[in-house]
Structure formats: structure tokens, C-alpha cells
Task: structure prediction
Amino acid sequence: MKFKFEKPVLIKLLIIGALLIIAPYAVPFSIEFVLMADLMGLEALVLFLIYQSRHAITALVEKLVEWRTHTVTVIILLASAYIFQPKVFLSHVAGSSIILLFACSFALAFALWVPAIYLSSGGFV
Result:
């Protein structure tokens, strides 16, 4: 007795087989995922995935808002640092530019200028 599968049945079997292999790793609700694909079709499966992924999207949005809040807080803290005050910042930029012009190397300018910035900000006291 030979089984002769028609093309739509063969495609459906291949999709179900692929879903059975991938589903336990891809989604936590793998049984519902496979049943939805088998019984209700691709459109219902996509709607089901959108419905089930709303929690992940909400968590992602919350993480992005938290990251933005932390970034703004760090920027505010850095802006209030002594080194970024206008008269100190302008003198340090001018000094850094002159040292960079003569040193011709960012690494050498960094090595020469960072200790001066650190000492002038009161970090050594």
C-alpha cells in the first residue's frame, strides 16, 4: 500500500513537523502553537502570536523607558560635574587642543592632560 500525498497535504505535514521541532525552543506555549497552526490556519496563528507577545512588548517598552531614565540621570550628573562648568571646560578644551597639536597623538595628549584635569577637579585632595 503506497501513500501518495498531494502537494497541499505534504506542505501542511512539513509545516507541522517544522513547528513540532522549533516550537519548544521558540515559544513557551508550544502545544497551543502547534494546535493553532494545525486546526485554525496561519491567520489565526499570527493573531495568537500577537496576542501572546503583548507581555514581551510591554516588558521591552518598560526596559526602554528605564534605560532612557537612567541615561538622562547620568547626563544630568555629568553636566553638574566640576569639569563641565563653563570656565573650567573652556580652559580644559583649550589646553587639550594645544597639547594635541604639539603631541600629534590622542594617547599622548590623554596621558599628559588627564592628570591635570584630575588634580584641578579636586580628585587628589
